Inverse folding.
């Protein structure tokens, strides 16, 4: 007998009849006609032996289908018990299972793709994470009828969750977005206030908060693309008062001809310049970088406070 994954529908029916016995199987499959029964009986005769694990898998599939139908309201299409999770955001799933036991958390998380499993596990309270991981390893101990029952209870609970688009969860990314829209002077003032009043929030903000000083954290290919849409005169203003290493970084991100133009522009700015012009030029460059991020050219999180290994 082949592996379970290679079985046909007729194979499975024959194994069920052979395992349960014809009398019991007939009670469960009253809708079969004589022709179908004859095919199953003939196929039973061709099956010599069936490994225990294959029998078990076939029986579980039958039982799972049976209890799923039992718990599905009349008229509804039979679906996978946890299929509705695909329509929920990560934050919604976290809210859904927040008050549940580690067993139910584990059962729910196990239905998701690996990348979503990781995100949701990391969002759980640290003491809960290892308990849920351990329970994931024992999900097979939950009776199939229990799985379906839990799935339906959570589905009903999920129907009361607000859609992700109906509310904002705030957080560091939200605050960073607000700061990025402010004038540089106000931006600094609010950030200084946050550093005093909410230092933990500031650490979150820094993962998303992007300033001119952070430009050197980006790959030069990205910086080069940013500078293509900025006039050399504005780059010169932006570099006013910057350390030589930052000036060199920007210079090396430009084509040789543009480097010469930028050097000329920087010479024209010899002497003190208005702070507002310098900060406005820096903000324009930062805004261009943010536009590229929105276009998917790079992910800011990959470079902010990143730990690199040479």
């Amino acid at each position: 007998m082949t592996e379970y994954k290679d079985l046909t529908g007729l194979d499975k029916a024959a194994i069920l009849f052979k395992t349960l016995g014809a009398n019991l199987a007939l009670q469960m499959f009253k809708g079969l006609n004589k022709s179908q029964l004859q095919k199953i009986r003939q196929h039973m005769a061709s099956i010599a032996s069936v490994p225990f694990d294959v029998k078990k898998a076939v029986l579980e599939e039958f039982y799972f289908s049976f209890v799923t139908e039992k718990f599905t309201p009349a008229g509804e299409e039979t679906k996978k018990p946890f299929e509705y999770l695909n329509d929920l955001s990560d934050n919604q799933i976290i809210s859904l299972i927040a008050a549940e036991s580690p067993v139910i958390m584990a059962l729910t998380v196990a239905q998701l793709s690996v990348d979503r499993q990781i995100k949701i596990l990391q969002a759980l309270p640290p003491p809960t994470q290892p308990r849920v991981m351990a329970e994931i390893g024992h999900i097979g101990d939950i009776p199939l009828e229990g799985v379906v029952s839990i799935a339906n209870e959570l589905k009903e609970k999920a129907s009361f969750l607000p859609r992700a688009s109906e509310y904002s969860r705030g957080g560091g990314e939200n605050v960073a977005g607000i700061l990025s829209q402010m004038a540089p002077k106000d931006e600094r003032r609010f950030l200084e206030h946050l550093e005093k009043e909410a230092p933990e929030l500031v650490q979150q903000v820094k993962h998303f908060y992007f300033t001119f000083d952070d430009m050197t954290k980006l790959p030069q290919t990205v910086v080069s693309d940013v500078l293509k849409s900025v006039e050399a005169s504005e780059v010169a203003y932006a570099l006013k008062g910057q350390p030589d290493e930052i000036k060199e970084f920007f210079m090396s991100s430009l084509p040789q001809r543009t480097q010469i133009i930028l050097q000329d522009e920087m010479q024209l700015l010899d002497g003190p310049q208005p702070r507002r012009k310098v900060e406005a030029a820096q903000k324009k460059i930062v805004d261009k970088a943010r536009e590229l991020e929105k276009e998917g050219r790079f992910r800011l999180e990959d470079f902010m406070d990143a730990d690199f290994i040479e």
Notes: Confidence is low (pLDDT under 50) at residues 67-76. The domain at 171-209 is CATH 1.20.5 (Single alpha-helices involved in coiled-coils or other helix-helix interfaces).
